[in-house]
Specification:
It is a single chain. The chain is of the alpha/beta class. It has a domain of 113 residues. 47% of the residues lie in helices and 19% in strands. The strands form 2 sheets. The protein has a 4-stranded parallel beta sheet with strand order 2-1-6-7, with helices on one face. A 3-stranded mixed beta sheet has the order 3-5-4. Helix 1 links the parallel strand 1 and strand 2. The longest helix is centred in the C-terminal third of the chain and has 19 residues. The radius of gyration is 18 Å and the shape is globular. 25% of the residues are buried.
């Protein structure tokens, strides 16, 4: 992995959104990473061989992904529901401080959107992503916990590669 594109989650789940995940990838592992905003009906295509700036280019209905790894943060409805309940528990247990932190948690509307999105799983969108599989490494993460665990495992992998064998 050298250049990583991150798509997701829409809406953000708690404090983990695509921009925050990109920041964590860049600081912890030192990868070139950028986030892409998902648009309905958007097809993704791998970038060319020429080195391009670390961005996604939009041309009509095709987004060119100039990266060798594509990370999809597609959080399940259960992840949003857990975050929403955790926010309200924080309010009950901590009062005013919990209420301020509650602003960064999932809302009931986000839980409903995630439920609807899981019911409307578009086969065309999945087929487009499967077509990208031969050109890019495709990683799909379905909860904030899974995303953070994946990030920790990548950190461990980098540490193992930099330590010379005895």
């Amino acid at each position: 992995m050298r250049r990583v594109a991150v798509i997701g989650p829409n809406p953000p789940c708690g404090t983990l959104n695509a921009d925050r995940f990109v920041e964590m990838l860049s600081h912890r592992i030192g990868l070139e990473a950028f986030s892409l905003r998902p648009l309905p009906g958007l097809a993704l295509a791998p970038g060319g061989d020429a080195p391009l700036p670390v961005t996604g280019r939009y041309d009509g209905s095709v987004m060119q992904v100039d990266a060798d790894t594509l990370i999809l943060l597609r959080f399940s409805a259960r992840a949003y529901l857990r975050d929403w309940v955790a926010g309200w528990l924080d309010v009950l247990l901590n009062g005013g401080k919990g209420m301020r932190r509650r602003a960064h948690r999932a809302r009931l509307v986000d839980v409903m959107r995630a439920c609807l999105a899981s019911l409307q799983r578009r086969t065309a969108e999945n087929a487009r992503l499967e077509n990208l599989r031969p050109q890019v490494l495709l990683v799909e993460l379905s909860s904030p916990e899974q995303a953070l665990f994946w990030l920790e495992m990548q950190e461990e992998r980098v540490r193992e590669e930099t330590i010379p064998p005895a």
